[in-house]
């Protein structure tokens, strides 16, 4: 059974992964379909070196996995439930942003 502390640590790790816009875009791209790093770099408009660093972060967080395909490596979400979680989170964030419930927090720099 997980404890609240370990649940909190896992959520914080997920939050750190989402704290960077490139990693968010990477997760959303992989939500659509598995992809190769070169294709992801082109899609996101970032260098392959920069993309590699972000993929390593997401791997270390346990959010993506590298799947060998011949001499290449394809990336995909570590668990299909992550796609649903990303969809739910995106919808929730859009709903909160559109109803303006967080204006003072944005002024303080926390959102």
UniProtKB/TrEMBL annotation:
GO MF terms held by the record: cadmium ion sensor activity; DNA binding; DNA-binding transcription factor activity; lead ion binding
Pfam families to which the protein is assigned, alphabetical: HTH_5 (PF01022)
Residues of the HTH arsR-type domain: 4-100
Record-linked InterPro entries: ArsR-like_HTH, HTH_ArsR_DNA-bd_dom, HTH_Metal-responsive_Reg, WH-like_DNA-bd_sf, WH_DNA-bd_sf
UniProt record, GO biological process: response to cadmium ion; response to lead ion
Gene3D superfamilies linked to this entry: Winged helix-like DNA-binding domain superfamily/Winged helix DNA-binding domain
Descriptive protein name: Winged helix-turn-helix transcriptional regulator
Organism of origin: Microbispora oryzae
């Amino acid at each position: 059974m997980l404890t609240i502390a370990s649940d909190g640590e896992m959520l914080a790790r997920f939050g750190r992964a989402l704290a960077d816009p490139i990693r968010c875009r990477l997760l959303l791209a992989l939500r659509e379909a598995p992809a190769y790093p070169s294709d992801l770099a082109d899609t996101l408009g970032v260098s392959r070196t920069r993309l590699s660093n972000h993929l390593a972060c997401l791997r270390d967080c346990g959010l993506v996995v590298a799947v060998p395909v011949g001499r290449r490596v394809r990336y995909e979400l570590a668990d299909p439930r992550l796609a649903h979680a990303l969809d739910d989170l995106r919808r929730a964030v859009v709903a909160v942003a559109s109803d303006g419930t967080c204006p003072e927090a944005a002024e303080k720099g926390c959102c």
